[in-house]
Amino acid sequence: MAWFGIPAALPGSALARLFTTERARALFTRVAAHAFRPLHLPFSSALGMGIITAGHRHGWPVAVGGSRAITDAMAALLRDLGGVVETGVPVLCAADLSPADVTLFDLSPAAMADSFVLKVASASSRSRQHAAIQASLTGLALPRS
Q1: Contacts of residue 78, Cβ cutoff 8 Å, sequence gap at least 6
Q2: pLDDT tens by residue, 37-74
Q3: Any idea which of 8-22, 79-93, 111-125 has the lowest mean pLDDT?
Q4: By the 8 A CB rule, do 31 and 52 touch?
Q5: pTM for the full model?
Q6: 69-108 burial by CB neighbour count: b if 16+ within 10 A, else e?
Q7: Of 36, 54, 73, 90, which sits 20 to 30 A from 99 (CA to CA)?
Q8: Residue 100 CB partners (closer than 8 Å, separation 6+)
Q9: C-alpha angle with apex 85: 81 to 86, nearest 5 degrees?
Q10: What is the tally of helices (H) and strands (E) in the chain?
Q11: Which of the 8 DSSP states describes residue 39?
Q12: Do the beta carbons of residue 126 and residue 134 sit within 8 Å?
């Protein structure tokens, strides 16, 4: 366990420097970034080590056609079920949205808080980030202005 634990405690950026080739450093850095932690922090290499270890033991799962094939298949299924996928359309306020039963956003909570009025009980007493996360769970009040 020490063979995993000691390197896992290192910052991801420090552990990446121990690899001898540029390709190996790049692979590890990209895999460690899946932790969504700054790579200069302690233990930020742990998830990268876990993924690398699993990849070496069980193989790297890669979709035929690449990751884009997964997105394309999901969008095709949504269309088959009567859904619509719109991309590349600027949305500056809720009035820019088409009426829909469900609208999914690929935005961070902070971006949602900046863009839309959020319906959250006592949001003023919470942090902006927490309010945005709560809104994503409880629903949005989108002004039609």
Answers
A1: 84, 85
A2: 889 999 999 999 988 888 888 888 778 888 889 989 99
A3: 111-125
A4: yes
A5: 0.49
A6: eeeeeeeeeeeeeeeeeeeeeeeeebeeeeeeeeeeeeee
A7: 73
A8: 84
A9: 155
A10: 7, 0
A11: T
A12: yes
